[in-house]
Amino acid sequence: MTIKDQIPSFPELTSFYLIMCEVAHGTADSREWNYHSTAERTYAEELATAKVMGLIRDGSIRTTGRMSVTKKGSAKRWEAQQYKQHSKVRTYVDTDFWRTAAVVKSYLGFSTARSNGREYTDILLVVDDCVAHLADEVAAHSTADNEAVSQQTDYSTPYIDLMWQAIDHFQISSENQPIKDTLVEWFRAQEIGGQKVSRATAEYLASFVRLPESRLGGNRPWKVRARQPQSQ
What we know:
The structure is a single chain. By secondary structure, the chain is of the alpha+beta class. The chain folds into two domains: about 5-145, no CATH class; about 160-220, no CATH class. The protein has helices spanning about 15-25, 40-55, 95-100, 125-155, 160-170, 180-190, 200-210, 210-220, 220-225; strands at about 15, 65-70, 70, 80-85, 90-95, 100-105, 110-115, 120-125, 190, 195. The strands form three sheets. Strands 1, 2, 5, 6, 7 and 8 form a six-stranded antiparallel sheet that branches. Strands 3-4 form a two-stranded antiparallel ribbon. The radius of gyration is 30 Å and the shape is elongated.
């Protein structure tokens, strides 16, 4: 028997915290969370925690961990009893344990839980079970986000459309910043509502399609010509 044969294998596993974040916020990336207050964010996480824990306790989401029955010191209440010498081998956590277990909370959700007489640490959830039972919860965030983006991008104006046309026409990018005079002349040749664009408007539009540093004079004509391929 090889060493690999002696190590139990499991489906893909993930932490409780990551699943809770996906259910509560639609993503584990806190930079993308959008709440008006910390209290509202906390409430979303409380709802998600209750949802996921309910599925764990009824056996819908399988969990794994490293178990110990060796107590560390003595506590008056089993909920506060600490354990040591956890197993080096990961096993599935049985459903009976979760019916009475108390979790040890931390900033990142929890990774330890104990009942009267044993404790599991390094707890991880089976990803396939989470997907099967929580996909709709996570998808609801994507639907809401897509609707918000759709609402935001429906509106435009002829001036905005004209600026996009200029960006496409001149292939404007952070590396390619056309000379302002060239842009002004192009805008003046265009029409909005059947009328030619005025010089004043063309000046504004030409400024707005360029980066701020270009508008401050960092893109002199000789610099632009220096970046252009030289003819052989």
